[in-house]
Amino acid sequence: MTRAHARQTSTSPEVAQDVPARAGGNAPRAIALADAIRRCRWIAIELGAQDFAFCTVGSAADSGRLVPCFDSEHPVASASTRLLDDGIGEQLLRQVRHSTAPCWWADEAEAEAFAGLVWTNRLEPTAGGGRGIAFPVYSDCGQAGLFVFAGAQLAPSSAALHDLHGRCFQLFNSIAGLARGRAAAMPSMSRREIECLKLTSRGYTSEEIAKELKLSVHTANQYLTQTTQKLNAVNRMHAVAKALRLGLID
Amino acid sequence: MTALAARTAQTTVAARLASRSDLTAFFMGLTDEIGADGYMLVAISHDQDRDNLQIIASNWIYDAIQMAGHALIAGLAQSPYASAPGVRPQSLVASQAPALLGGEEARLLEVLGHSEIFALRLQVGRQRLFVLFSAAEAGQIDATAMPRAQLECCYALSQAQGILASASLQDPLSDRERECLFWVSEGKTTEEVALILGVSSNTVNSYITHAIQKLSASNRAMAIATAIRSGII
């Protein structure tokens, strides 16, 4: 845990035990994969869904793809392929960048089951038939993901939709915490190193950083070289991007 | 109009916020529903050493905004009290949060009629916005209605892209510019990006220069940071 994190935790308000971790405060409770799948299954049961899949959205602008993480047939992962086939995956990918609203698809005859869902988006139905609903989610550090539920009995109620989507958000933050915990390669950085990196991300040049922090230009550069090495980055731009994505700076 | 669009229009599943007045009506309705008096929808961008606050919609009186000041409002939106979707929101009561607010700021908020504030973080696609719901008296807002209201805001704003775009909050980069910036953020040099994309180095540099200008950044590192913070790459 970095010093920056510790500082944030100490300023966060008193939170009751059962309140999940909050943004910018304590890190989300990391959970095991089996736990995540179980929690996802509960959501599926409430939706009347048979299959579910969870995938993250690659960050690389338009080359970003859906990366399947787990599904209802874990560890075979055949449900992901089935659910995201038929053009549904591409349609969802287009939606997730701009819209948080749940997306659903169904044949014309079955569309009534979804008629009461205000604010939701409708996708082109698949050639193979069937129905499903997807919830876009976004983590605290800007990652995007999708929970997809499908099955012939799928019948989402508009009253429960927000609650279920909220739980998907929560679950995603736990999973994102899990991935960060596993990486465990969170480098330990000094306060000065973090400061230099932060100023770089705000557009400061080495000279400006030196002036701001009352260091010599050489020392400022030295700190930045160290952070670049610690983050296993190839240059400053890379180091800034990595630090932002890891949540070392904001 | 495609056949599907026509059918969707018939079933009117996707409600839309087509204009500014729709947006105002939506927020007034929601504010009323949860028992709040005030709402304020803002976007925050980081610039050098300060936060830029952009107020997209609000029913705070003009004087209240001037007196509270942008810095205080941005601070409230980004405080540890601001909750992401899926996290049970917790309110900030002006008289009980001396750690976050100076005594004078707390009194000012009370005088202005914002004694209790719920700060909610919204996700509209990858874009992050904040909404503050406030009330003159603590306990007036129905806290149990907040999680639903928070997602309702996310959904509604997702269907209001036209309005948000006019607030110039939308991803301003072209696909090529975004792609170049992404590869630079992965540590690639101009020459390497040129090789990856199959264009000349000059072209890559010009894409990146445009991206830097559009993001009003002062150099590459800042452009990358801005783009990552706003979820563009």
Please describe what this structure looks like.
The complex is a heterodimer of chains A (250) and B (233). Chain A has 250 residues and is of the alpha+beta class. Helices cover 45% and strands 13% of the residues of chain A. Chain A has a six-stranded mixed sheet with strand order 2-1-6-5-3-4, sandwiched between helices. In chain A, strand 1 (51-57) and strand 2 (66-71) form a beta hairpin. In chain A, helix 2 runs antiparallel to helix 5, helix 6 packs across helix 8 and helix 7 (206-213) crosses helix 8 (217-230). In chain B, helix 2 (20-33) runs antiparallel to helix 6 (146-158). In chain B, strand 4 and strand 5 form a beta hairpin. Chain B has helices at 3-11, 20-33, 62-68, 70-77, 103-111, 146-158, 161-166, 175-185, 190-197, 201-214, 220-229; strands at residues 38-47, 50-58, 92-93, 116-124, 127-135. Chain B contains eleven helices and five strands. Mean pLDDT of chain B is 84; it is low at 1-13. The two termini of chain B are 32 Å apart. In chain B, strands 2-1-5-4-3 form a five-stranded antiparallel sheet, sandwiched between helices. The longest helix of chain B is centred in the first third of the chain and has 14 residues, at 20-33. By secondary structure, chain B is an alpha+beta fold. The chains are: A alpha+beta (250), B alpha+beta (233).
* Radius of gyration of chain A, taken over Cα atoms and rounded to an integer in Å: 21 Å
Q: How much of the polypeptide of chain B forms β-strand, as a percent range?
A: 15-25%
Give the CA-CA distance, first to last residue of chain A.
Answer: 15 Å
Mean pLDDT of chain A: 79
Distance between the termini of chain B: 32 Å
Principal-axis shape of chain B equals: elongated
Number of helices of chain A: 9
Tally of contiguous helical segments of chain B: 11
Low-pLDDT runs of 5+ residues of chain B are 1-13
| Approximate helicity band of chain A | 40-55%
